[in-house]
Amino acid sequence: MGFNLAIASNCRRRYWQSIFNYFNLEPLFKRVLCIEDYPAGGKAYIVSKLLEEFKPDRAFLIGDTLKDWEAAQSNGLPFIACLWGYGKEEDLKALSPFAVVKEFPQIGQVLNIVK
């Protein structure tokens, strides 16, 4: 669809690398930054570093927790709530996200609408 995908995570590098390897996700993402890259930063700071690097015309933050929403707010990004992660549906919907997706393929549908 022409989007550059990046991950900003509070997890450790070893954890996301095991997921990437298992699901063969590496070809899909341009960059992954984790808490080990910026230990004093936090999610919002990690997202800001990705934005500095990519300098996108338009960006979205897709996440499943309040911390993801806060990172989106801190960086002026629309938040797309995904319901398959750690967050609870009622909590995520209460944040008034740009969109709510229940399954991974729906992300493409949402992004196709705003493209």
What does this structure look like?
Helix 2 (43-54) packs across helix 3. Helices cover 42% and strands 16% of the residues. It has helices at 13-23, 43-54, 66-74, 89-94, 105-114, and strands spanning 6-9, 31-34, 61-63, 79-82, 99-101. The chain is an alpha/beta fold and 115 residues long. Strand 1 (6-9), helix 1 (13-23) and strand 2 form a beta-alpha-beta unit. The chain has a single domain (6-114), classed as HAD superfamily/HAD-like (Rossmann fold), CATH 3.40.50. It contains five helices and five strands; from the N terminus they run E-H-E-H-E-H-E-H-E-H. The chain is globular, with a radius of gyration of 14 Å. It has a three-stranded parallel sheet. The model has no long low-confidence stretch (mean pLDDT 92).
* Share in β-strands: 15-25%
First and last CA, distance? 8 Å
How many discrete structural domains? 1
Helix vs. strand class:
alpha/beta
How confident is the prediction overall: mean pLDDT? 92
Which stretches of 5+ consecutive residues score pLDDT under 50? Answer: none
* CATH class categorisation: Alpha Beta
Q: What descriptors fit this protein?
A:
alpha/beta, Rossmann fold, three-stranded parallel beta sheet, 5 helices, 5 strands
Summarize the structure.
This protein is an alpha/beta fold. The chain contains 5 helices and 5 strands; from the N terminus they run E-H-E-H-E-H-E-H-E-H. The longest helix is centred in the middle third of the chain and has 12 residues, at 43-54.
